[in-house]
Design brief:
heterodimer; A: mainly alpha; two-stranded antiparallel sheet; B: eleven-stranded mixed β-sheet; four-stranded antiparallel β-sheet
């Protein structure tokens, strides 16, 4: 009996203590982390290796955002192509029809800007998360950061090519830095690439993550070659030709090698993935594509040298010319064979052209060597024209025009050589634009 | 006279900035959600003051009149962010909104005789809105329009929430207002010779603009009806601007007409109590619309009926004219 009584008392005490606990704990809230899925707050501190690697995939995947409109809009402005689809602005504003202007709220302004900065944001989250976790070694951390810095620089160059300006300091979304003009931004991009190289050099022999589309460039040492290839283009665009040649030497540039080597944006039809946005369904005689089309600007066909295989491999004559909004084209794109064909980020062919350009003025014989390599790959004979600087610039730009057709280069090439005003006008009243307006929401 | 207050909280998850799944090369990863969360978001509160009368005169007229004024504080809105931040939009408390309006209604038994009864009702109403406070620079409402180049809903302090704005001389400028000046309906029902019921409803919307982007597309395709006129040619050859596409969408529409014949009692009784009532009739909907609006339908909305997005015309399927034959039997 006695023992039983004591037990009862203890049970009552326990109940009172439990109730008290209930009262006190019910007054606090759980930490606010999204219960329905991964959240930003969840990765910024103490991220796991898996979470970091998810961000790496996010960086790579979003590099493809709005790549289609960035390519077609700049290609249209440079009179390389027309995009005939349901949106009339592709043939009106972008070509300055009847003097219409580019609008800073339109998709061609907001899409590419938002796409590039989405990827940059993911890369900045990756840097912040990698620097704020104990789950990785110092070498692994340097690998994440070096990768992210290289991609941010690559994306900023794409912004500068399209917009001629860029906001570089965007790591803190509540306190954005200023929008910088081209050369101030490019200086910072080049410094970022050098920081990235330093980190990649300290990242050991393997990354803690895997990459898509970077086959052959997926270790710190080989990814550093991509970093230097990007640095070579940055130096060239910055007017530093010797810096470009130095960077080329540490990249995968190969004057006599395979011109297709280089990292690629990859696509698939898997759930959640995207397809190649610059691919358009090919016409057949029985079934012409009269819907969503990329039509080749006639001047690109007519100006080509006879026998240039780039024309026959990248385009095809249509069963009938395509006409829309007073514009006509006889050829349509064959640049990509399928809707999952990869898009090159920066292939050896472009690096050879960078090499040729960087040599003009200091070593014109080597410039010709680069030009000849590209010409020979297109089944053209060696260059036989004059070799003054000006003549070689003309030839180099012409080779870039055919080697890099519809790859988001021509508008920028013409702008940096002040040649945009040499473009043909298709309709009376059309205007040539050579940079995208910065989106309205940027407040600039 | 009445006064009330009510609150409305943000949708669940508005406080979080989440990561979305994304795929490349067979691997699934995370990307920042373009919609930025706000951990400090508060519920919006609205207070409404209403004054009105409801009276019956001479046993024939019902008159209702209401004036209301509704103030919404800390209105929860989505706005575009500078996309260089990595985000596209943010949903948070941004503004105060004031709505005021008048609703009038008169209902009358105009004629009450043995062989002819006529009941008529007239409703009249309008609403004015104004953004009275906006914490951020004016912005285009995301998803409600195609940018300032073609005209869009545009949230701006001191302007109606329904204003349509576009770029004029490089500056975002009000070019229209989707809210009508007023609307009226006129409904009538008559009973003639005891067995015939006739009813119809007229709807008049005065003012209220649409952005007619269908015309942009038909201009481009060369199929706008007025392209053989000088005016049409001038328009088709003018540059894109919001003013080119804004049109008044006033209309007068016969929404519904119905005529029924009720069978008299002696025929009903001939069925020996099996049926209690029977009538036969025809009706039609959307029989005619009088409007200067050049699109198919002034009541168009490309984005459905949600909030701030009506009145944008992009090649809709026109609303159909409908005819019905009725046979009603009650057992």
């Amino acid at each position: 009996m006695k023992i039983y009584k004591i037990k009862t008392v203890k049970w009552h005490y326990a109940l009172v203590v439990l109730l008290l606990l209930g009262i006190t704990t019910s007054c606090t809230f759980d930490e606010e982390v999204d219960p329905n899925g991964p959240s930003l707050e969840g990765v910024l501190s103490s991220a796991s290796v898996n979470q970091l690697n998810n961000m790496v995939i996010g960086v790579e995947a979003t590099m493809r955002n709005s790549l289609g409109i960035q390519t077609t809009a700049s290609g249209t402005m440079a009179r390389e192509l027309y995009l005939f689809d349901a949106d009339p602005r592709n043939t009106a504003n972008i070509l300055g029809k009847n003097g219409s202007s580019l609008e800073n709220g339109d998709f061609y302004a907001t899409g590419p800007w938002g796409g590039r900065y989405r990827s940059i944001k993911n890369a900045n989250i990756l840097i912040q998360s990698a620097n704020n976790t104990g789950a990785v070694t110092a070498e692994e951390r340097a690998g994440y950061v070096g990768f992210a810095q290289t991609i941010i620089a690559f994306e900023l160059i794409e912004v500068l090519k399209s917009y001629n300006k860029a906001r570089v300091d965007v790591a803190d979304d509540t306190n954005l830095g200023p929008v910088l003009d081209f050369s101030a931004a490019m200086t910072q991009v080049r410094a970022m690439l050098n920081d990235g190289l330093t980190n990649l050099n300290q990242a050991g022999s393997t990354f803690a993550f895997s990459l898509a589309g970077f086959s052959g460039f997926d270790t710190p040492a080989t990814f550093a070659q991509f970093n230097r290839a990007v640095a070579a283009t940055a130096a060239l665009y910055d007017g530093d030709k010797s810096g470009a040649l130095t960077a080329l030497n540490a990249s995968y540039f190969d004057l006599n090698g395979d011109i297709t080597i280089g990292p690629k944006h990859v696509f698939s039809q898997s759930s959640g993935d995207v397809t190649n946005p610059v691919y358009k369904g090919p016409s057949t005689a029985a079934n012409p594509n009269n819907g969503d089309q990329i039509i080749v600007h006639d001047s690109w066909i007519n100006d080509a040298e006879a026998g240039d295989t780039r024309v026959s491999s990248k385009t095809e004559v249509r069963p009938d010319p395509s006409v829309q909004d007073g514009l006509t084209g006889t050829h349509e794109t064959r640049l990509y064979a399928t809707n999952v064909s990869p898009i090159d980020m920066l292939r050896n062919e472009e690096l050879i052209l960078v090499y040729a350009e960087a040599n003009i003025g200091s070593n014109n014989a080597q410039a010709v060597a680069g030009i000849n390599k590209v010409r020979n790959e297109a089944s053209l004979a060696n260059y036989s024209g004059g070799t003054t600087d000006a003549e070689l610039v003309t030839e180099m730009l012409n080779q870039r025009r055919y080697s890099l057709w519809a790859e988001n280069h021509r508008m920028f090439d013409l702008r940096r050589y002040n040649l945009s005003n040499t473009l043909p006008i298709d309709r009376a009243g059309d205007v040539v634009y050579n940079e995208f307006p910065i989106p309205f929401a940027e407040g600039n | 006279m009445a006064y009330g207050e009510t609150g409305s909280s943000a949708s669940f998850g508005s406080i979080f900035t989440s990561l979305n799944p994304v795929t490349i090369g067979g691997g699934v990863g995370s990307t920042i959600n373009p919609a930025k969360g706000d951990p400090n978001i508060e519920p919006e509160t609205s207070s409404e003051f209403e004054i009105g009368i409801d009276t019956r005169l001479f046993d024939r007229f019902n008159v209702e009149a209401t004036y209301y004024k509704r103030n919404v504080k800390d209105l929860i809105l989505s706005r575009a962010l500078p996309s260089s931040s990595g985000f596209g939009s943010e949903t948070t408390n941004l503004a105060d909104l004031e709505n005021s309006g008048i609703e009038l209604s008169v209902n009358a038994d105009v004629v009450r005789t043995e062989n002819f009864n006529w009941n008529t009702g007239v409703q009249y109403w309008f609403n004015d809105s104004e953004i009275t406070r906006l914490d951020v620079p004016a912005f285009a409402q995301p998803g409600a329009g195609f940018g300032l180049g073609l005209g869009t809903f545009y949230i701006q302090e001191g302007k109606p929430v329904t204003q349509l704005a576009g770029t004029v001389n490089g500056v975002p400028t009000q070019v229209g207002d989707a809210a009508p000046d007023f609307q009226m309906t006129f409904n009538n029902s008559m009973t003639i010779f005891k067995q015939f019921d006739l009813s119809f409803l007229l709807h008049w919307k005065k003012g209220g603009d649409n952005i007619n982007l269908t015309k942009l597309l038909t201009d481009l395709g060369g199929t706008t009806p007025d392209l053989d006129t000088q005016e049409g040619q001038d328009r088709a050859n003018s540059p894109f601007s919001a003013t080119r596409f804004v049109e008044s969408a006033s209309y007068l529409r016969l929404r519904e007409v119905a005529l029924y014949y009720r069978f008299p009692e002696k025929i009903i009784n001939a069925f020996g109590g099996v049926i209690s009532n029977a009538k036969i009739g025809i009706s039609g909907r959307n029989l005619f619309t009088i409007t200067d609006y050049s699109g198919y339908d002034p009541e168009v909305s490309t984005n459905g009926s949600q909030g701030l997005s009506s009145g944008i015309d992009v090649t809709p399927f026109p609303s159909s004219r409908q005819f019905y034959f009725h046979l009603n039997v009650q057992f």
